[in-house]
Amino acid sequence: MTRIVLLATSLALLGIGSTTALVDSQWTKEFKVDKSKLDSSGKNPYFLLEPGYRLELRGGDTDLVITVTDKTELVDGVDTRVVEERESKNGDLVEISRNFFAIHKGTHDVYYFGEDVDIYKHGQIVSHGGAWRSGVDGAKFGLNMPAKARLGQAYYQEVAPKVAMDRVRIVSTSTTLKTPAGTFKNCVRVEETTPLEPGTKEYKVYAP
Q1: When you count CB atoms within 10 A of the terminal residue's CB, does the N or C end of the chain come out lower?
Q2: Taking the model in full, what pTM does it have?
Q3: Given a cut of 70, is residue 19 above it in pLDDT?
């Protein structure tokens, strides 16, 4: 299935501002999950992990294409689904990442197991900054999207010390967002921060 959403304003790409860093203990960092219950394909109301799904986001000069591939990869003992993100600015490729996700067969919560990253400049790979994998160098998988989002719920999506520590707080479960692709209701809006960049906020919106 292919679904294309083009955004003229900020969605997952923009919305950086300043805030005071909150106490780290407010976010759930460890997830006691039976790994045998995780699968590489499935869906919850706000996250599709089905091969062939494609999402396009556009904000300002930035384009982001997200594709759920038909590839899987074993990460930290779990058969994860590879989701490719391809980001361009002004038509120039700046990053390709291969993200590793798995979904719980019972709860349908989606967990994030890491990513391989290629950073581009002038068409050449210049670094792999931000790459991490659960089970390597103290990194652990995080919760990417709960199936039953709760207002105020706070959790880490990435737990890779000194590399990637993104965390989110759900600030709305009833957001309405108007875009060139249509109007989306009952969206989940999250506030994203990281202790690696104190004072920075970003907002993302997930449509059902």
Answers
A1: N
A2: 0.88
A3: no
